[in-house]
Amino acid sequence: MAVGPDTADPPTVEQLLRRVAAHGLPGQPDRICDEPPAADVWSSLIGRVGSQRLQGLLLAAVGAGALPVTDEQRDTAVERHFGACVSVLRLEHRLLEATDVLEDAGIQLLALKGSALAHLAYPDPAWRVFNDVDVLVPGEQLGAALATLTAAFGATRPVPEVRSGYDRRFAKSVTLRCPDGIELDVHRNLVFGTFGFAIDLGELSASAHRFELGDRRIATLGPEARLLHACYHAGLGDRTPRYNSVRDVAQLLLTGDQDPCEVLALAERWRSLAVLQRGIRLCRALLGVEVTGPLADATADYRPSKQEARAIASYVGADRSHAAKVLASVPFIDGLRAKAAFLIANLGPSRRLLERRHGRGAWVGRAWRALQRRPR
Amino acid sequence: MAAIPDESDPRGTATWRRAPRALWRRSGERTLVLCPGQDRPLVISGAGQAIWELLADPIEERALVSVLAEAVDADRDRVGSETRAFLEHLASESAAIREPRPDVGTASEDPPAGRADEAGP
């Protein structure tokens, strides 16, 4: 068993952050560092922990003695986690309320990410901090869901629909903001464009599982789809992958809830083997976790096609952009009409939206420049 | 908030459980409980955390007192009054619910052995 840090020098903020993010995973050292971090290092670490939503893992590491801290540092870790927990509990109440009103309106929903992962993947839900409510509804019910949630919570929509009918056909999600500051992300798909076109959205509800929250059993993705969704989020969500998202992948793999054969079959149907491979590789690259087993074996030597590589690059490559994602999506769309509809809908958005985002008259230039930055 | 012991159930035959929508998290040595419509959480620490854990399933008050008194090796009457006060406090904050038994006054003095044996702080 690994015992302690492997270098004599005090770890950097990045090293500490990485070790905090991996705390409790197999093969990790028992100790994150030998001495309490210096004041300036701790200050930076606390900031990064907050932005990466790792307050739960930080406090767990401190509580387990893996991260030695001063009394003052311990107080800070406790205080930050306390605040994060209050926020999370408010979000879970909103999830319950949203479930009530949507189901009363006859709308099926699946909870995504935050609360579902906290309760299903982590040994203690307090380890998983999140900052919004994510639900998935059928595309044909998206409009009704938005109207229901808007009416129930007085929510507003900060970004208008690109053009009439766009949300229902092409959007990944629509964000609503409640007057109390809570954000509701109402998804119709797990990923924008590209791989999203290969997902059988009806299959998501059919394989749903449930977790207990208060007096409700909330529906969420089945274990195999949950893992792939975590891979989409970790592998495509940010240019620099987030520790907490990669931790989700590692944590889900650790539960062993998935049937590896089912995961691989689903990934093939969803044309997402490259994303699964990326998620597994990120566990090692970011967290130092060696993932073994059938999924690691099956994806180890997988060679993404040009289309898949281009799709991934459109999210996280140097030339990533909305236009790049749109163009990279074309090979994933079945049928000429559907391709054309998607291209037109995305590359010629409504003037109202673009003026709101970029100012009057700026959109033509921006759109043109974006199109010049095709992913390599 | 000061809790007022309920004298209507001196034998502790009522059953207690967490309120269905009292959501909670453990944070270090405290448990935070947030009920619907509240902005600030109820913060539970010390032995209160053990009681909160034991309220995961409905439990008769005197069974609860019995296991707690045994666990801390303390006088049952004193544990009983403090537990009652704590439970009343949870109820006043909408975090717990008391369900009086229909057969109050006729129940056996002995707590249900199964419950007492299953539970433990």
Can you lay out the helices and strands and say which pair or pack?
The complex is a heterodimer of chains A (376) and B (121).
Chain A: H1 13-21, H2 39-51, H3 55-63, H4 71-104, E1 110-112, H5 114-120, E2 133-136, H6 142-153, H7 166-170, E3 173-177, E4 183-187, H8 201-206, E5 209-213, E6 216-220, H9 223-236, H10 243-255, H11 260-269, H12 273-287, H13 294-300, H14 306-316, H15 322-329, H16 336-347, H17 351-358, H18 363-372
Helix pairs in contact in A: 1-2, 3-4, 9-10, 9-11, 9-12, 10-12, 12-13, 14-15
Chain B: E1 15-18, E2 23-27, E3 30-34, E4 42-45, H1 47-54, E5 59-60, H2 61-72, H3 76-92, E6 96-99, H4 113-118
Antiparallel strand pairs in B: 1-5, 1-6, 2-3, 3-4
Helix pairs in contact in B: 2-3
Structure description:
The complex is a heterodimer of chains A (376) and B (121). In chain A, helix 9 runs antiparallel to helix 10 (243-255) and helix 9 (223-236) packs across helix 12. Chain A has a 4-stranded mixed β-sheet with strand order 1-2-4-3. Chain A has a two-stranded antiparallel ribbon with strand order 5-6. Chain A has helices at 13-21, 39-51, 55-63, 71-104, 114-120, 142-153, 166-170, 201-206, 223-236, 243-255, 260-269, 273-287, 294-300, 306-316, 322-329, 336-347, 351-358, 363-372, and strands at residues 110-112, 133-136, 173-177, 183-187, 209-213, 216-220. Chain A has 376 residues and is α+β, with helices and mostly antiparallel strands. In chain A, a hairpin with a 5-residue loop joins strand 3 and strand 4 (183-187). Chain A is built from 18 helices and 6 strands. By secondary structure, chain B is of the alpha+beta class. Chain B is globular, with a radius of gyration of 14 Å.
Helical run tally of chain B: 4
Rg measurement of chain A, Å: 21 Å
Task: Label the structural class of chain B.
Answer: alpha+beta
The main pleated sheet of chain A reads as: 4 strands, mixed
Helix content of chain B: 25-40%
What is the overall silhouette of chain A? globular
List SSEs of chain A in N-to-C order: HHHHEHEHHEEHEEHHHHHHHHHH
State the shape of chain B.
globular
List low-confidence stretches of chain B: 1-5, 105-121
> Level of helix content of chain A?
40-55%
Instruction: Report the mean per-residue pLDDT of chain B as an integer.
Output: 79
Over the alpha carbons, how many angstroms does the gyration radius of chain B reach? Answer: 14 Å
Mean pLDDT of chain A: 90
